Amino acid sequence: MATHLPITVHRLRRHLALTKIRILSPAKAQGSTGCTAALAQRRSRRQRARDKVGLRFQNLKDKRIVGDFVGELESTIKKMDCKFDSEKVIEQFESLTKDAKRVQTETLKKILIENGESEYLQKWNLDGRFDPQTYRSCVPVVTHKDLDPYIQKIADGATHPVLTGKPITAITLSSGTTQGKPKFVPYNDELTETTMQIYRTSFAFRNRKFPIGNGKALSFIFGSKQFTTKGGLLAGTATTNVYRSEQFKKTMQAMQTPSCSPDEVIFAPDFHQSLYCHLLCGLIFHEEIQVISSTFAHSIVHSLRTFELVWAELCSDIRTGVLSPRITVQSIRTAMARVLTVNPNLADEIESKCLGLTDWNGLIPEIFPNCKYIYAIMTGSMEPYLKKLRVYAGSIRLLSADYGSSEGWIGANVNPDLPPEMTSFTVLPNIGYFEFLPLDSVEPELVGLTDVMLGEEYEVVVTNVAGLYRYRLGDVVKVVGFHNSTPKLQFVCRRNLMLTINIDKNTEKDLQLTVETSAKLLIKEKLEVVDFTSHVDLTTEPGHYVIFWEVSGDASEAVLKECCNILDKSFVDAGYVSSRKVKAIGPLELRVLKRGTFQKILDHYVGLGSALNQFKTPRCVGPTNQRVLQILCNNVAKSYVSSTFD
């Protein structure tokens, strides 16, 4: 393209229109207008415009030249349209958060106006009143159980507005790790847009601190198996719904972080084959990788643990240019054939680097020299994976992603320079209507987004664009600050994930800290806890805690017995300690699992429709989660009982 063309999208579009006109023959152009004089006048103006910008295609018969120019021009316009303007996004965010109360009122009004004719809202007699006070007094606070019959109607094909005015376009499946089976959650195009707003906002702040250039991302993302509901809606994980949208691809392209893997790998029917090819694509494009990402930190750790096992096979594929026979899905093989070429030099380079690593320390900077940061959700139940992730990351910075759930998004990480353990999430006041249920009040009354108190803990209650009204998420958060007038939240725990038998109350965070304390004993044997979970065993009298560990190798009996005792004494909740002392709670039991047990649990959830990147190890396995409990109990290698309070 001529270098003297003005570089603005508006002018480029004008040049494109003028050029396309020249492709038409005079006869065709005349026939399309029916007004020769007017056409001649317009042609004269166009000719002067073409002369001005230097677009002189004298030989109109050479359509190839014109076609090439048009294609290049269209490509340039597309790239410029997609160009990401971080400062503009930040400016919009600042404007929204300066008057969060007004934005919340307007957001609620918009949601209620759009969905006021739905069966559910008609039930509560709002009568055209859309203010927060009327809404709170008329519409009850609910859990998923209350809305499930309405969601089922939609899934079964109801044609009238059940929860929303606009159609629900898909059904989201929750991960299912909490209750043992996925929940149905309504999904629509508006939720996709709120997802992109979260992505754009956090990227704008992230790119201001840690700018990246044009490159690729090694994104461990996986589409889940989808199925069609009785009513014809596609059902899949929230991440699958997002990844399949055109908006997602355009946003990633604008943010200069497109995945290095073809779509056929992302949406492969077998996640083991998908993961292998993600790793292979990462190696092929290793110098272009600027970001390594996934939804959750667990997915990255799991993927790199897999790399430890298959790196030699990956090198063989690159050396010979032939894809491993372990890849049996033809669509993947066809897609990878476009990417994989014979490259013995690259294979030798990767092999040398892998052999030179000690315990895989610094794997990421060694293999991906231009990687700027690692990006995933690293808070809450993901914190236990940070230790291993830091081993792989070496000097590469870990950045925690944003705060959301299968039901929708809550806030963005706009302070990416903080370590993951200190990450907070700033609520975007226009992506939903938010209320907060105080935890410690005797008769708790919900408060609005701008009425929360610094230092207090609340359960999040959300009203969103996809038909959830005053819906209890079950997430406990702590208010740690404000950005303008909107709160900054830290995730504390899931409210219903709690170890309790008597008057004891131990949260997911309490369990994590206890495991971290006791697992330090494994360091001297150069071992680590690969993963863990827990269960309250009430089949004995009195009931007792059971902690399940998968360890990276064979620890000595003495060390494991001491680990069990330290687990027991590290639960410092006053209710637990006092109950143990008077034997109202029995001795804690540590069950050491066979290696690969948590892989079996992952396979189980993937079989239910979950995706690897959405998987979260259940930290407390309840009695309703019989299949997971069965997997755990069938794979116990050793068992130890605490003698701490004997």
Termini distance?
83 Å
Judged by helices, strands and strand pairing, the structural class is alpha+beta
The largest sheet is:
8 strands, antiparallel
Fraction in helix:
40-55%
Number of strands: 22
If strands are numbered along the chain, what order do they take across the biggest sheet? 9-10-11-16-15-14-12-13
Which band does the percent of strand residues land in? 15-25%
Question: What is the radius of gyration computed over CA atoms, rounded to a whole number of angstroms?
Answer: 28 Å
Family: Belongs to the IAA-amido conjugating enzyme family.
Keywords: Ligase
InterPro entries: GH3, GH3_C, GH3_M
GO molecular function: acid-amino acid ligase activity
What topology emerges from the helices and strands here?
Blueprint: H1 9-23, H2 26-33, H3 36-53, H4 63-82, H5 86-98, H6 100-115, H7 119-122, H8 132-138, H9 144-155, E1 170-173, E2 184-187, H10 189-209, E3 216-219, E4 227-228, E5 234-237, H11 238-243, H12 246-254, H13 263-266, H14 271-284, E6 289-296, H15 297-320, H16 330-337, H17 344-356, H18 363-367, E7 373-377, H19 386-393, E8 397-400, E9 403-405, E10 408-412, E11 425-427, E12 433-438, E13 447-448, E14 457-463, E15 471-483, E16 486-494, E17 498-499, E18 506-507, H20 508-519, E19 529-537, E20 544-551, H21 557-570, H22 574-581, E21 589-593, H23 597-607, H24 626-634, E22 636-641
Family: Belongs to the IAA-amido conjugating enzyme family.
Pfam families: GH3, GH3_C, GH3_M
InterPro entries: GH3, GH3_C, GH3_M
